[in-house]
Amino acid sequence: MNSAAKPFLTRAAVPWPLAMAAIFYLLLLLLGGCLLGNADTYWQIALGQWIAAHHQVPHVDTLSFTMAGKPWISSQWLAQVIFAGGLLTRFLL
After folding, report:
1. Are the C-beta atoms of 61 and 46 separated by less than 8 Å?
2. Facing residues of 71 across strands?
3. Please, which residues bridge with residue 60 across strands?
4. What is the DSSP string of the chain?
5. 5: Cβ contacts below 8 Å, ≥ 6 apart
6. Cβ count near 24 (within 10 Å)
7. Could you report the per-residue pLDDT of 15-43, keeping only the tens digit for each?
8. Single pTM value for the model
9. Using CA atoms, how far apart are residues 13 and 20, in angstroms rounded to an integer?
């Protein structure tokens, strides 16, 4: 069978995981500014910094004005720590 008869994906020079990663990277470049356009993102970063500084997930709200001291559990703590670590924020700024 000649190469012209093979499907394009089987004769492509770039492996599909690399192509998908490149597409994802380009989408982040194009749409990344929208992430920091949301005011909640800065709160997520601040909470990630608190988690990293105290080495624990907060059980009361420490960062809001209206609910300070009220019981609360962060369900997105891993993403908040990643944001605070700058893995995404350095890329998007």
Report:
1. no
2. 60
3. 71
4. --TTTS-HHHH-SS-HHHHHHHHHHHHHHHHHHHHTTSHHHHHHHHHHHHHHHHTS--SB--S-SSSTTSB---TTHHHHHHHHHTTTHHHH-
5. none
6. 10
7. 888 889 899 888 878 876 666 677 777 88
8. 0.55
9. 14
